[in-house]
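Working notes for the structural subgroup meeting. M.R. asked for a predicted model of this chain before we commit to crystallization trials. I am recording the input and output together here so anyone reviewing the notebook later can reproduce the run.

Input as submitted:
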Amino acid sequence: MTFLHRSFLLLAVAASTATAQRDTAFTWSKQLADGSRLTIKNLNGPIDVRPATGDRVEVRATIRAESRGNAGDVTFDVREVSGNDVQICTVYQGRSDCDPNHSWNDIRVSVHYFVDLPRTMRLRASTGNGSVSVTQTVADVDASTGNGDVMIRESTGRVDAATGNGDITINAARGPVHVSSGNGRIIANTARGPVDATTGSGDIDVKMATLPADQGSMNFTTGNGSVRVALPADFNGELDANTGNGSITTDFELKVQGRLTMSRLRGTIGTGNGPIIKLRSGNGRLEVRKN
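Returned structure, recorded in token form:
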């Protein structure tokens, strides 16, 4: 049986408007076992995850009241779901972002989280508005924002990243990568696929060093932008590329299937026994390169 421990940590603020406009701070620290998962859920403001200098997770948050806002409207909810699963969420006017089915309007405070994280922990980080930056190596990561960039330095496992409006950059990953942006550029480098990437408007640049032979299809789609995918030089599989207004180029020898056009191309690479690479753009170039 799982026991849910909740502790609401309150920040003291003075009653005066001048005091309410000042930055205030929240801190939390604990040593967690390797492979533990930390969840940070923020309503409004960025999340920065950095390498820890020791073996403890250190979380610090600063609150900034905006025009007609009050820092006293914000507290923090720390939930230790288990010994290796901790959630820290922003609470606004008594409602916690840890709880589902909540919606907020006209939020007049922002919270900036700074997280010092030991290596190879699992991480979930989400914010309604603000960037998510992970400069520490994590075991796997789920990062999302409604409006802002997402940057992940390195993951030794799975990566899920999403933004409603902003760029996504994944410098290195060793597991499956799934990324989406409503409007922004996507850059992803992985030692081993698969990768799926979608953006409403922006370029997609993906490099995969290796791919399992039994990997299923992978999709790279942009409404308006170019798509560049670099595959292992010994890649075997199929290519399915379609652009509304742009050219299609590839470094691989291709056995074309059906009619060849400037904007539509389907064919077999090598033996054809491997993944299907699907590239789509409403308006942009499609390129498949040898890595």
